């Protein structure tokens, strides 16, 4: 559990809004393996889901390279933010899915990955959805912010995804659940064969 705690504190350190807003965030790009990424996310989310008696499903498919270039901590942060929200806003006995799906490559140097975080939880109202990625929709009122808790998190998540050259979108239906889709292009290290 210590490594999980360490990762969480690392991620909280990075959740520094002021840095992101002032454009001071620099991506720390390095080589990482998908297996390590998924394992570290799993180590944090699985116990959270279990504590709420939820099932956590992980699927990785169609990705041609195990080793990729990117800011592993930031990708981690995006995944944990989306997944911990999914766990938080899904009823006990519900399901949370993490899927990493390889897409058609747009260039030979990049692996094109779609990340889906889905739940069969409470879902979001159309009004809430419209403003979900705006930084201060729920931040100025601290009482509602405690309840929703995603006011800043989602804005930061979107910022990081866009900093990585990716996109993020969401679809949700009240009482049915939500799905977040992140598209990322990650460079394939030179020496990696298919």
Structure description:
With 194 residues, the protein is of the alpha+beta class. Helix content is 41%, strand content 26%. It is built from seven helices and seven strands, in the order H-H-E-H-E-E-H-E-E-H-H-H-E-E. The chain has helices at 2-14, 17-21, 34-51, 72-88, 126-131, 142-148, 151-163; strands spanning 30-33, 55-61, 67-70, 95-102, 110-119, 167-173, 177-187. It has a five-stranded mixed beta sheet with strand order 2-4-5-7-6, with helices on one face. Helix 3 runs parallel beside helix 4. The longest helix has 18 residues, at 34-51. The N and C termini lie far apart (35 Å). The relative contact order is 0.17.
Secondary structure layout:
Elements (H helix, E strand, L loop, with lengths): L1 H13 L2 H5 L8 E4 H18 L3 E7 L5 E4 L1 H17 L6 E8 L7 E10 L6 H6 L10 H7 L2 H13 L3 E7 L3 E11 L7
Parallel strand pairs: 2-4
Antiparallel strand pairs: 1-3, 4-5, 5-7, 6-7
Structural class call reads alpha+beta
Q: What Rg, in angstroms, do the CA atoms define?
A: 16 Å
Q: Please summarize the sheet with the most strands.
A: 5 strands, mixed
User: Oligomeric status of the shown chains?
Assistant: single chain
Unreliable spans: 137-150
Helicity, in percent? 40-55%
**Broad shape:** globular
What is the CA–CA distance across the termini? 35 Å
Summarize model confidence as the mean pLDDT: 85
What is the tally of beta strands?
7
Report strand %. Answer: 25-35%
Widest β-sheet, arrangement of strands: 2-4-5-7-6
Count the helices. How many? 7
